[in-house]
Amino acid sequence: MHPITDPELAAGLAMFEQLIPGGITLDDIPATRAFLSAFNAAMATQVPDIPGVATGDHYAPGPDGAPDVMVRIYQPETRPAVLPALLWIHGGGYVLGDVASDDLKAKGLALGLNCVVASVEYRLAPEHPYPAPLEDCYAALKWLWANAEHFGVNPQRIAIGGASAGGGLAAGLGLLARDRGEVPVCYQLLIYPMIDDSNVAQAGPGVPDAPLWTRASNLIGWRSYLAQEPGSDGIPYYAAPIRAEDVRGLPPTYIGVGTPDLFRDEDIAYAQRLMKAGVKTELHVYADGFHGFDGFAAESDAAQRFMGEQVRLLARALHR
Predict the structure, then answer these.
(1) Could you report the per-residue pLDDT of 207-240, keeping only the tens digit for each?
(2) Distance between CA 191 and CA 267 in Å, rounded?
């Protein structure tokens, strides 16, 4: 495992290991979902709520033959008539997580960015493999754009974003929106995105494991999402965006990742590809920033810079 020398981040990782002995495993996905749901609910009681944000659940028409998609709308209680919007996609390795787990995150973004946040309850793998989760996100994006006037949203200032698998879905959504040409996307915020299905070599001599999100979990996550072996031929780039050779025409992009994160190299490679294609791209790499460090070491200097830079860049993109 990569050594973490930043004392604040090391303390955050130690807290994670204490709270979740043995870490997050995917040997029994339903059991892990139940555990994390209870864990997140318990943690939420220890953190003060964020006042000044109105929330409401709505339903976007689902993809053909699929159920409607729940979208939770967050907006400042005191707001102008028209605001930009962020479509937010939660993480969880394509198999875990829900809107509720990112509730405080979404509220903070709505206030910090002075925008409407639409958080998507997409279907999870392995019960619903690709393309179901991505198509749910696209359905939510199209619905938000079509109902922009109803929610007081500027239809030309809608950004997309997410963390981990949510970042991977956001990257896939950016490609899908570009190719379908129905909904304009003004920015994409990719927080340590999970985008390379070939990054599944298992830990061993010379192959270090990663903190929090391990190589074993990554293999199961990709196998569940793709419903086939990761790295196989013919996997669409919408499912694994690192496979996209032509990234021209994508919206301005932020990519942030830490040095011990399993996704570091794929995220850097994708950022470089965007830059070479002329896409305005911000790449930020944080020393010792393990996967999810902004959550488990939220008060650290690194996490404060990480989150602050995201808000500043996204606010500039949304409100220009």
Answers:
(1) 889 999 999 999 999 999 999 999 999 999 999 9
(2) 9
